[in-house]
């Protein structure tokens, strides 16, 4: 009698678990269905290939998986107790394995301890403070300092911008103006930078009545991660007597860069605009295209937020946004376990990200079309004031390690794990648009020791030697 009663209790428990899983799978299916229904309502739906776009394929595939689980759990109530127990054990085992894999991916492959060790090997002191500690120390010294805000931070929860008033939003493309901030520590120190009157990393005295020679458009490499301000690309060009403005921001992709060009380069009409491109730009682009506000820059050549004349609003909005966080670490990438990271692990965020990247970097035709459309827009804008657009292809250390670099006229696909699309297609696009390409990939790859251009020969942005080599080759092209 006790055995039968115990078995009935176990049967009820397992039925309850399967019922909970059924409800959960129906809820997930509902959420994914909403995403699919909303896709045609986005500005980017047509230009990204409609239902053949990476985001559509991503959500449809998740929808299929969720549907299979829903049907399975719905039919499971007719199974025997033993069969249910076996299936439940299998599902739990798979779930735990995926969470372990997700947890493994959550830890950086090139961690702080490894960088410290490499620095010690060559006798370099390494600043082991956290970003928040550096910020606190700078504040104690009397500096007006904020974390380095990057526009890409808004693409998840604030993709249409931040509220200025109840019926007005703004999508900032720069940091707070006239403050101190810090960049990432890769070379053993935290670069302390000053922002100009528009919130970019520049000296204040560069905005004068004299014509600007060069404006730089790009991401963290252009902003100057992770070297001293006097060692970045814009400083090197200024030292070579090219009056240069740095409009780079970490995490920027082609659409944010087009927006930056429209908002900040167009009013100043520089003689030369240099556009920098890295392997991860297509990943960034698809997240940017989820914002209807940002997509307007591609669809409407006259669209503008008039940001250059609204810096006071930008400063107030960004200060409010930063202060709304419980602590400033929310704006950094410090690797601390917290509730948000735990939720990300449960949601398998990195595994889903890898799957999405696989789809994105398999969509060559769509990717190349989008890049071409953006470059046409950018090139037309620059040529409208008589300027010249240059395109710089940047290598990462991991892409150089793949060892697949050959002459641009015969370059095939690089190592897929590095998320690099074929550079030959980019050369073709720029050639068709009469845009000069500076292929820094092959320049670095063909050097005697390309590891020497990276922080302590580890993955990261360039060191001062790398930025100097890049600048020297830029100067050769533009002179």
What does this entry look like structurally?
The chain is α/β, with parallel strands linked by helices. The protein folds into 2 domains: 2-106; 112-353 and 361-478, SGNH hydrolase (Rossmann fold, 3-Layer(aba) Sandwich). It is built from 18 helices and 9 strands. It has helices at 2-38, 54-75, 81-106, 112-121, 131-140, 220-223, 233-239, 254-265, 281-288, 292-299, 311-323, 339-346, 349-360, 364-384, 397-401, 423-432, 440-445, 464-478, and strands spanning 162-165, 168-170, 180-182, 192-194, 214-217, 244-246, 272-277, 388-393, 436-439. A 5-stranded parallel β-sheet has the order 6-5-7-8-9, sandwiched between helices. It has a two-stranded antiparallel ribbon with strand order 1-2. A hairpin with a 2-residue loop joins strand 1 and strand 2. Helix 1 (2-38) packs antiparallel against helix 2 (54-75), helix 7 packs across helix 18 and helix 8 packs across helix 10 (292-299). It is globular. 35% of the residues are buried. Mean pLDDT is 87; it is low at 333-337 and 404-421.
């Amino acid at each position: 009698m006790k055995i039968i009663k115990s078995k009935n209790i176990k049967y009820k428990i397992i039925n309850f678990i399967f019922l909970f899983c059924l409800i959960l799978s129906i809820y997930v299916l509902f959420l994914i269905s909403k995403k699919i229904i909303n896709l045609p309502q986005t500005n980017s739906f047509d230009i990204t290939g409609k239902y053949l776009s990476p985001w559509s394929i991503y959500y449809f595939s998740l929808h299929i998986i969720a549907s299979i689980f829903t049907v399975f759990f719905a039919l499971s109530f007719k199974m025997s107790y033993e069969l249910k127990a076996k299936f439940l054990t299998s599902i739990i085992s798979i779930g735990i394995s995926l969470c372990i894999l997700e947890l493994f991916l959550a830890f950086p492959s090139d961690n702080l301890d490894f960088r410290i060790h490499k620095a010690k090997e060559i006798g370099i002191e390494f600043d082991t403070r956290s970003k928040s500690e550096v910020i606190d120390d700078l504040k104690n010294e009397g500096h007006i300092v904020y974390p380095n805000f990057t526009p890409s931070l808004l693409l998840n929860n604030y993709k249409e911008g931040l509220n200025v008033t109840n019926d007005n939003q703004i999508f900032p493309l720069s940091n707070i103006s006239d403050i101190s901030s810090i960049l990432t520590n890769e070379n053993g120190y935290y670069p302390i930078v000053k922002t100009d009157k528009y919130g970019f990393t520049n000296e204040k005295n560069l905005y004068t009545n004299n014509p600007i020679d060069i404006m730089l458009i790009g991401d963290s490499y252009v902003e100057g991660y992770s070297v001293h301000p006097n060692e970045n690309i814009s400083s090197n060009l200024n030292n070579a007597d090219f009056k240069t403005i740095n409009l780079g921001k970490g995490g920027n992709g082609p659409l944010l860069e087009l927006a930056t060009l429209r908002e900040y380069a167009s009013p100043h009409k520089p003689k030369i605009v240099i556009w920098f491109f890295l392997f991860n730009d297509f990943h960034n682009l698809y997240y940017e295209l989820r914002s209807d506000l940002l997509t307007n820059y591609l669809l409407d050549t006259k669209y503008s937020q008039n940001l250059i004349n609204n810096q006071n609003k930008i400063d107030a909005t960004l200060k409010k946004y930063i202060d709304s966080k419980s602590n400033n670490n929310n704006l950094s990438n410090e690797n601390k376990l917290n509730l948000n990271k735990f939720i990300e692990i449960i949601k398998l965020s990195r595994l889903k990200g890898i799957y999405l990247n696989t789809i994105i970097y398999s969509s060559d035709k769509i990717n190349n079309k989008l890049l071409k459309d953006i470059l046409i827009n950018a090139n037309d804008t620059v040529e409208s004031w008589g300027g010249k657009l240059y395109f710089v292809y940047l290598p990462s250390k991991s892409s150089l390690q793949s060892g697949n670099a050959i002459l641009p006229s015969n370059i095939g696909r690089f190592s897929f794990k590095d998320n690099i699309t074929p550079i030959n297609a980019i050369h073709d696009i720029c050639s068709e648009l009469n845009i000069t390409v500076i292929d820094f990939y092959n320049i670095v790859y063909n050097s005697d020791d390309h590891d020497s251009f990276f922080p302590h020969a580890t993955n990261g942005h360039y060191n001062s030697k790398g930025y100097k080599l890049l600048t020297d080759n830029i100067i050769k092209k533009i002179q």
